[in-house]
Amino acid sequence: MAPRRRRELITFGNNLRLARRMLKLSQTELGHRLRVANDVISKWESGRHYPEKYTERLCEELGVTMAWLYTPHEDEWARIEAEPPPRRPCFEPLRVA
Prior knowledge:
Elements: H1 6-22, H2 27-34, H3 38-46, H4 55-62, H5 66-70, H6 74-82
Helix pairs in contact: 1-3, 2-3
């Protein structure tokens, strides 16, 4: 079910970001799980692109339904926005054996 209107795409992207942040995942971590680049996740969240072939996998990884992704969740956003975003290093430290 691809969104047809810009508002649906924005709601989808916002809810994708909300679900990711609720799980305390970075865009990079979600990208690794889905085997896509983190800039792809950014495009989905901003509403610039829609994850045509990844929607089912996204729902599985985030533990949400497609209906949840298309429903506005302002009350949850208020709670999440009060929390700082997860801070993770951009790279793994090199481990020497």
